[in-house]
């Protein structure tokens, strides 16, 4: 069975809107470290509270933030 890959599009959304980490922190209340990790796809999970805060603050849906990428192989250890 091939692993599923989900990519966070926060970095893309930030670039499209000209937002910096500080802007997203101010809009969402999510910590700067979390924003940095999510924007850089350097995390393996996201809490529902964080996802909800991002959706409210940025006016997006979970489907706007998360992208399913089939056939992407990851190294799970």
UniProtKB/TrEMBL annotation:
Pfam families: HTH_26 (PF13443)
Domain of life from the UniProt record: Bacteria
Domain HTH cro/C1-type, chain residue ranges per copy: 22-65
GO MF, any single term: DNA binding
Protein known as: Transcriptional regulator
Protein species of origin: Paenibacillus kribbensis
